[in-house]
Amino acid sequence: QVQLVESGGGLVQPGGSLRLSCVASGIIFSIYDMGWYRQAPGKQRELVAVITDGGSTNYAGSVKGRFTISRDNAKNTVQLQMNSLKPEDTAVYYCNAEWKVGSLGIPVNYWGQGTQVTVSS
Questions:
Q1: Residues in a beta bridge with 107
Q2: What is the DSSP letter of 30?
Q3: Percent of the chain with pLDDT over 90
Q4: Distance separating alpha carbons of residues 105 and 116, to the nearest angstrom
Q5: How many whole angstroms separate alpha carbon 92 and alpha carbon 82?
Q6: Helix, strand or coil for residue 29?
Q7: What is the CB neighbour count within 10 angstroms for residue 83?
Q8: 20 to 30 A from 87, CA-CA: which of 64, 74, 97, 119?
Q9: What are phi and psi of 89, to 5 degrees?
Q10: Contact 86, 96 (CB under 8 A)
Q11: How far apart, in whole angstroms, are the C-alpha atoms of residue 99 and residue 110?
């Protein structure tokens, strides 16, 4: 049974920081690309940051320079350090694990339940 469990969300003032964590179980963590997505009310879910199995990272333009994604394969954990938070960062943040299977690269995706991040004074 695959589980992705997020933690670390909460209420923070603009300019503050939060660190999200996601612990995975039931998968071979090291072969998965791990990502953080977010969904604000009335908006579509969007990619925030991704770290590949090889450690390469990619960020949405809106968070580049403020957020940092990292992974610890020994602990089956991916983290998102969020600095200089803005009200527009308010959303439910979801952890994602993706593995592309076979020569066609068919994606297998797993999602966490989400953690709320609210940036407000």
A1: 100
A2: G
A3: 94
A4: 32
A5: 14
A6: helix
A7: 14
A8: 97
A9: -85, -5
A10: no
A11: 9
